[in-house]
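[Meeting: bench + compute handoff]

Bench side (C.D.) handed over the final construct sequence. Compute side (W.E.) agreed to return the predicted structure before the next meeting so the bench team could plan truncations. Sequence as handed over:
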Amino acid sequence: MTAFRRLLIVLTIACTSAVHAADRPNVLFISVDDLNDWVGCLGGHPQAKTPNIDRLAASGVLFTNAHCAAPACNPSRTAIMTGLSPHKSGVYDNRQKMRELLPDAELIPKYFSRHGYWSAGSGKLLHYFIDAQSWDEYFPSKETEDPFPRTLYPKNRPVNLPVGGPWQYRETDWAALDATDEEFGGDWLVSKWIGEQLEKKHDTPFFLACGIYRPHEPWFVPKKYFAQFPLKDIQLPPGYKEDDLEDLPPAGQKRGPNRYFPHIREHGQWKQGIQGYLASIAFADAMVGRVIEALENGPNRDNTIVVLWSDHGWHLGEKQHWQKFTGWRVCTRVPMIVRVPAGVPGLPDGTRAGGVCSRPVNLLSLFSTLTDLAGLPAKSGIDGPSIVPLLKNPNSNWPHPSITYLGDPGSYGLSEERWRLIHYANGDEELYDTANDRYEWANLATKPEHADRLVQLRGRAPTKFAELMPASDASLPKLAWHPVKGDTPPSKPDGDPFNVVFTNNWADPVKVFWVDRKGELKSRGVLNSGWRKPLRSRPGAVWLITDDQDKPLGYFVVGDRTAAATIPAR
């Protein structure tokens, strides 16, 4: 082959690639953290105000039966961004680290970047890190691995909900801030940066991801959003039923009640909490509105796919539960909206405005759906069927269930269009007819007439589950080391047990003691220099470390989660 012919081939390929790149659609990928169905278009709470999300839904396809891959931030976001199901990746828990378990996984932005896109993002898209290698640009700077811009918080905390004990997540609190949106920062700065990118003309197609943090706790937002929901008018969650646990199996009864809900009620803060959540949703909606307005008024309006999703739902008293982590619909069902313009390779006619789809879909499908729409090669080895057939016709036949994996392998929630099965690893089950029981108040699993249905639903779920691998010691949060300067405080254990990993960096052996409630020492053995040892503990426990002659060196106070207790070198 002559040099001229080789040059001609190279130029032809380059020109063809440039044409294809120019024809490819942009992608605007919007995440809203911890948002359940309290959205106007989903009707989850009659007082929710989300005009911007509602308008987006009216302009595209709203999925009313969309579910998360896991009811916790880390496994859900890992599944979305990698396209790998939790039961295969082994990422089930917030305490695990994505890159420890999946060091070679390619995320959506990197895949798009590798195929000619400019991939950029801002805000929380993964679980409290950015994964700099996966992005071309990020705000804040990707090198920081901190996805949060400056955010205004009260100087003295807590504001409204007293801390009930060491078991409590310190961010569970709410208050109206005397600040403008700009002064508050946070999501306002994220929406500002994303909006600036949307206002630009780009030489290459873009994958632009926007992570809105609210309504994730703490529910601190400017007071104008609280003012939309006067406390005297606040309505309790429609899905709340006081005796809703009576027909649940033991695993369900254990999964439901937690300490947050009775603590909130004891302090008369239930309606205040609901007000804070509604206010935070209204704030998040306003930030979504800023982003959509920037798109609509900019040069990328007619060639940008828009996807909006939330990583999981949230309980505000339903099933006597506050927070997430459950398999019930209030926690697994999420807003999911897709709008596709005409001319997109995978859907030339685009989506019809006002489409509503009730088929069971999962956020795990977003990776394959976006590559399908953009005309990119299908990513090998990922899970989740493309939902493009449903974007074309929301009433298309859809043979797939949607499965949400809980934190222990073998436990899951399986959703069909009408029926939901919650299966726990110990064999306990719940069955709900959501067409007639929206809030899952009547567990039908023990009814003989539904035995065949249980068998059929079980047959649609996996039978093999990846092992739950704990996070490495290096990735665990570090307990503070307190050198002994007087008496060691007694333990005030309060909460469920978990492991604390003790590591001895002291040059000599040390002794490890648990300090009981009376301040008495209970020996837990000797830890030689360089050794590590996990020990069961609880929030509020105090652990004293002495030298081999029983001279006190220092102590640790255990927080609300698994952590590393490292005895420092001399």
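W.E. noted at the follow-up: Residues 14-397 form a domain with the Alkaline Phosphatase, subunit A fold (CATH 3.40.720.10). C.D. will use this when planning the next construct.
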